[in-house]
Amino acid sequence: MKAGRQARIAIIEDNVGLQEELIFFLESKGFSVWAVPSAEAFWKRLHAAPVDIVLVDIGLPGEDGFSVLEYLRGLGAYGLVVMSARGAQADRARGLALGADAYLVKPVNFADLAVVLARLWQRLTQDSDHGAAGNSDALAWALRDACLVAPQGQNLRLTEQETRLLETLMRYPNEVCDKAYLHEHLFGFHEEPDTHRIDVVLSRLRNKARKAQFPLPIRVVFGKGIVFLVD
């Protein structure tokens, strides 16, 4: 990803009217955009037209959006934003667990979408060399079966919120994640996020680790956010 340019965005949305509105809005913000009505059409076009961020509907004809999220997260560092009429907590949790950076419920406020995309693009364009150096070390840590597994083999049982917090932090090892971004990943987008909720989740996690004598490599950087440290 090259600093100084706007993101290239793909939209997977079978509502043609919404497709057109999104293209018009995002192009007016300077993004390069293309759209398709299905996952199958997306895979065919992606090879010839690379993108940085993908907006994904869940209820697609044929292959659904959850499958797209899972496969894209395995392919590389795409920004992934769900836009769906399915607003149930179970759907939101599944989308985020599969790798979505944000989950927006239709009808989507375009101003909110612009904020989400700006924050996400900022994260994606952070120092890639620093991130690449940390990622190989982060592989020694793992999230498996609702547990955080340390390089030495110790396991720490996690709640759903703790798992989602660690998923995000471990995606950016040795990088400070601001609490507003973490709040969005755990609780959805809010114009004025209550970041104290992140403090509560983190406090419980650290207390649990302390009691279990588990070497939790998380640090809070005052005024900036939280970081998952790896050697």
Automatic annotation (TrEMBL):
The modification 4-aspartylphosphate is found at D57. Keywords: DNA-binding, Phosphoprotein, Transcription, Transcription regulation, Two-component regulatory system. CDD domains: REC_OmpR (cd17574), trans_reg_C (cd00383). Residues 8-121 form the Response regulatory domain. It holds the Pfam family Response_reg. Residues 130-230 form the OmpR/PhoB-type domain. Residues 130-230 bind DNA. This is Two-component system response regulator. It comes from Neopusillimonas maritima. The lineage of its organism: Bacteria, Pseudomonadati, Pseudomonadota, Betaproteobacteria, Burkholderiales.
